[in-house]
Amino acid sequence: MGMTLPLELHDRVAGKLQTNWRENDWFYCDSAVIRHYAFKAAVVAAAAPRTGIEIGTRCGYSLLSFNEAMPTTSWLCIDGAMDDDSYDCLAHSKRLIERHTIFARLIVVDSHAIRSLPPADFAHVDGDHSFDGALADLRLVSGCKVILADDCDNRDVRRAVDEFVRESGRAVEFYDDGLRKAAVLT
After folding, report:
1. Which of 7, 12, 34, 166 has the highest CB neighbour count under 10 A?
2. Structural domain count of the chain
3. Using the 8-state DSSP alphabet, how is residue 145 labeled?
């Protein structure tokens, strides 16, 4: 899948993020963060999914970036609301979905309580960052043709990706966007 970041996509993602960032978010929108989300959008553009699943939606920044790459993709977004600011973040995400007419359904549930999901072409896994949690999330979306696993710079997430690759026989390509490492599994 060779990771390239088209300048035009980077600039579109930058504009969307800068004008739609949650006020007083502890996660600051700087050039490294914009590049991080633009790379995610490039992965979605290369995969060109009709349907996608996102585990770990938080404020909707990834979803907003994905929509810049593939505005016709239909998303099922899952978030466990496990952080102190989760409900403020999820309210922000819902506003983004409505404001930008993103084809997305957001459900608030711990992904580990889910036994199966509807079929999808693509999955973005950015939920539980423990080894067991990340591995369970990867297994939950194993039916997706392409999986983007975020935060592979986290030792436990990287171990979970490696274990999932061994179990599933998938090909994996790691990339470093300058902020975090990620894996694209096909």
Report:
1. 34
2. 1
3. S
**In this structure, what DSSP letter does residue 112 have?**
G
Query: pLDDT, tens digit, for every residue of 99-154?
Result: 999 999 999 999 999 999 999 999 999 999 999 999 999 999 999 999 999 999 99
Closest CA to 118 of 76, 57, 164, 63: 76
Cβ distance 96 to 63 under 8 Å?
yes
Whether the predicted model's global pTM rises above the 0.90 cut? yes
Of 93, 134, 84, residue with least CA distance to 112: 134
Per the domain annotation, does 143 fall within a domain?
yes
> Distance between CA atoms of 149 and 72, rounded to whole angstroms?
22
- Count the helix, strand and coil residues of the chain and give each as a percent rounded to the nearest 5: 45, 20, 40
Sign of CA pseudo-dihedral 74, 20, 41, 132: negative
- The DSSP call for residue 144 is S
Strand partners, 147: 123, 185
Asked if the structure places residue 2 within a domain, the reply is: no
